[in-house]
Amino acid sequence: MVTIISRQKLAERWDTTVTTLDAWERDGVIKRLPRYTTPRYSLSDVEKAESNGMDNLYRRKEQIIRELEDKVQELETKLETIRRAIG
Known about the structure:
It contains three helices and two strands; from the N terminus they run βααβα. By secondary structure, the chain is mostly helical. A two-stranded antiparallel sheet has the order 1-2. The protein is elongated. The protein is 69% helix and 7% strand. The mean pLDDT is 88.
């Protein structure tokens, strides 16, 4: 018997969104079970994906977040400089 997990539960488990799961399905990171009308995944496939590189996806996600936070800080500093110049 196959243990299954819903799309929402998988998104929560991987701390991501359903949209991201859709992209990962297209990229072959995870494969849904075809016999269900609503997306379901095999827990063993999920665990296999986790052991085969999910760490890399998480590290990349964290890197992107840090880069975006740095960019936001940079833009906020520039905005403050502009406000002082015109204000």
